Amino acid sequence: MDENSSARLKRQLLGIVHRIGLFLAMLTICLPGLWIVLSSLRPTVEIMAKPPVWIPQEISFDAYIAMFSGIGKGGIPVIEYFRNSLIISVTSTIIAVAIGMAGGYAFARYRFRGKSSVFLGLMLTRTVPGIALSLPLFFLYVRLGIIDTHFGLIIAYVALNVPFTIWLIDGFFRQVPKDLAEAAQIDGCTRWQAFWQVEFPLAGPGIASAAIFAFLTCWNEFALASQLTRSVSAKTLPVGLLDYTAEFTIDWRGMCALAVVMIIPALTLTYIVQKHLVGGLTSGAVKG
Amino acid sequence: MATVSLKKLTKRYGNIGIVHGIDLDIADREFIALVGPSGCGKSTTLRMIAGLEEISAGSIEIGGRVVNDLPPRSRNISMVFQSYALYPHMTVRENLGFSLKIAGAAKEDMDRRVAEASAILGLDTLLDRRPSQLSGGQRQRVAMGRAIVRHPDVFLFDEPLSNLDAKLRTQMRTEIKKLHAKVQSTVIYVTHDQVEAMTLADRIVIMREGHIEQVGTPDEVFRRPATRFVAGFIGSPPMNLHEATVDDGQLVFASGEKLPLPAQFKANVATGDKVVFGLRPDDIYPTGHGISSGGAADVHQIELPITVTEPLGNETLVFVEFNGTDCVSRMLNPRPLRSGERVAMSLDLSQAHLFAAGTGKTLRS
User: Fold this and answer.
1) Contacts of residue B99 in chain A, CB cutoff 8 Å?
2) Do B54 and B133 belong to one domain?
3) Does the pLDDT at position B293 exceed 60?
4) CA distance A192 to chain B (A)
5) Do B83 and A190 touch (CB under 8 A)?
6) Beta strands in B261-334 (DSSP E)
7) Same domain, yes or no, for B327 and B266?
8) Domain C-terminal end among B218, B233, B248
9) Tell me, what's the pLDDT at B184?
10) Contact at CB, B85 and A285, closer than 8 angstroms
11) Residue B114 Cα, gap to closest chain A Cα (Å)
């Protein structure tokens, strides 16, 4: 066998190994999700079976039907929870992204006293586990009378997300060359117009990804929400999962069904926005 | 169309001075080049004229109007950036028309002016492309097109050709010259490349460490440099500069070599003066291979060893050893020479320059 054909064979073999590796990695990542979907469709006996039953024997949508059947028939107020989750996540995402844009822009473009300490301080807040703050927050919220409200959870989530959105958006504004805003100003824009006409569209993908991350954090957050909400009027979907636990039993099937209901909007949103997440829009602005 | 006038223009960042009170008057439709090594303050000066940088002291007038505190958009200038700074999310057409759109121009007016600019620069076929789909030279042209569309009073160029390769740079240089002939507006052009400055400008401003060293036509700064720095900066290959001491009508160099004191400086120096002797490569050549400088030549003959030769086809750069260092000379109608060979060199001392060793100022009266 000559050198060329052995090199070609080696390349093909490596390609196959590469694909198997990728398949295994994807399987590991997707299996829990798939297991949740499967578990929401099979009877509890099968879910609890040891050894596990890999292929479901019978499939039914009972859990989903029951979920929407109302109190007393195995149902939970899923519409209310969904509405709460949506209001809280969307509002806090919008606020966090707005603050993140202002902050990220300032960190990317301006020099000011104590800039790096402020930035470090913001990042350090990420090191505090949110749950550690739940008790102080609980007392504070009770005093302020905002316990068990949308507002209370929204400001908690904004505080949770702002350091992250600032950090992410700062990075994206840094990639937009300064010259572009200056060129826009010479072309007749005010500082404000230069931002909206040139810098904002170019940092768009970054801002979209910051928004997605912030939204998913709020949408999936459980620890704080479980402490700060009590009633149907404020509880979010993750907290709603607890409705399936009774004193002695846990309805795994119902829980899985609600988890699927939770995943669908998040998945759809990510799918819609993903094409905006792809960068590379700035190529060609400057000598490349 | 406007004059530009800088009066005691100063820029400081904290305690660090960048531009130290420069004065400059630029006539209407003049092409001015600001040159100097990096860090000399030329770009900062341009950015202050553009309004992108605040001024620390002094004043800037455009068309007789003081614009010190006006934002860039109120100065009616346009600028071509070194990086081109094209808007990547817009097509060429949108890039060209952006300033008009912001100004709220009518659609027909916008189309007409974009068409006019793209015709001047040959961009007609590229109007629907994005900057990322253009080559370097095309991007450069779009950047210039964006500048002309506005019909500005003053064009500012910030090292516009330094990102292009050598061949394209020469080509675009010619295009800029043609463009200036067509649009006839005042141009301030920043570059670190003295060849660009010499070929393009009506007048050249040579800057160094935030000060203006000399302002003059290309011919003036080449033939009568005001300082040692200008002498060394303008011209390629650069002028040969050697320190010497004046001793009884002679220049004595550190190596002990001697040259007669050029006649034109006799009245301005005295024995014991420390000076810098300068001679352009054109004015030192192997005997019989030089540029004839007419009848006024004051040629001195000297035999020097060759270190290296660089043949360029129609001429050869011959490096000879003088005063312990290399001294570059230009040999026309070259004949083969060997390293180490001693050749008779002609030095045209009527073209020599002398600068005061301390201040660096010319000793020409």
Assistant:
1) 187-188
2) yes
3) no
4) 12
5) no
6) 274-279, 284-286, 299-311, 315-322, 325-332
7) yes
8) B233
9) 86
10) yes
11) 14
Q: Same structural domain for residues B186 and B169?
A: yes
pLDDT-above-70 percentage for chain B:
98
Report the pLDDT value the prediction gives residue B251, as an integer from 0 to 100: 92
> Is the same domain home to B34 and B119?
yes
Residue B215 pLDDT greater than 80, yes or no: yes
Q: Which residues in chain B are contacts of A286 at CB distance < 8 A?
A: 83-85
Question: What would the two tokens of residue B17 be?
Answer: 């001075």
Q: Which domain holds residue B246?
A: 240-356
* B160 CB-near residues (< 8 Å, 6+ apart): B80, B81, B82, B140, B143, B144, B172, B176, B189
* Tens of pLDDT, residues B87-112: 999 999 999 999 999 999 899 999 99
For the whole prediction, is pTM greater than 0.95? no
Tokens 């990728």 correspond to A22
Among B194, B217, B233, which residue terminates a domain?
B233
CA B45 and chain centroid, separation:
15
Instruction: State the pLDDT at residue B204.
Output: 96
Contact state of B52 with A187 under an 8 Å Cβ cutoff: no
Give B 115-144 residues with CB within 8 A of chain A.
130-134, 136, 139
Whether B362 is in a domain gets the answer: no
Within 8 A by CB and 6+ apart from A4, the residues are none
The encoded tokens of residue B73 equal: 């958009």
Q: CA-to-CA distance for B139 and B331, rounded, in angstroms?
A: 40
A284:B103 CB<8 A: no
Same domain, B21 and B105: yes
* Interval A163-216: pLDDT, tens: 999 998 998 899 889 999 999 999 999 999 999 999 999 888 888 888 988 999
Is B290 a domain residue?
yes
Q: State ipTM.
A: 0.84
Residues of B in contact with A172 (CB under 8 A): none
- With respect to residue B363, please indicate whether it lies within any of the assigned structural domains: no
How many domains does the structure of chain B reveal?
A: 2
Residue ranges of chain A with pLDDT lower than 70? Answer: 1, 71-74, 275-288
B152/B26 Cα distance (integer angstroms):
16
Q: Which chain B residues contact residue A187 at CB under 8 A?
A: 73, 78, 98-99, 102, 146, 150
* Same domain for B216 and B319: no
- Give all domains of chain A, ordered by start, each with its CATH number: 3-67 (no CATH), 78-277 (1.10.3720.10)
Q: What tokens appear for B233 in the block? A: 């900066």
Residue B307 falls inside a structural domain: yes
CA distance B7 to B24: 7
| Chain B closest-CA separation from residue A218 CA (Å) | 32
Q: Is the Cβ pair B72, A282 closer than 8 Å?
A: no
Predicted confidence (pLDDT) per residue in B341-350, tens digit: 999 999 999 8
| Helical spans, DSSP H, in A187-236 | 191-194, 200-220, 223-228
Q: What is the CATH number of the domain that holds B352?
A: 2.40.50.140
Say if residue B120 is in the same domain as residue B193: yes
CA dihedral sign of residues B222, B227, B230, B232: positive
Structure tokens at A170: 């700062």
| Inter-chain CB proximity A189 and B136 less than 8 Å | no
- Closest CA of chain A from B42, distance in Å: 17
Instruction: Choose the mutation target among A178, A186, A200 for the interface with B, i.e. most B CBs under 10 Å.
Output: A186
Q: Are B221 and B342 found together in one domain?
A: no
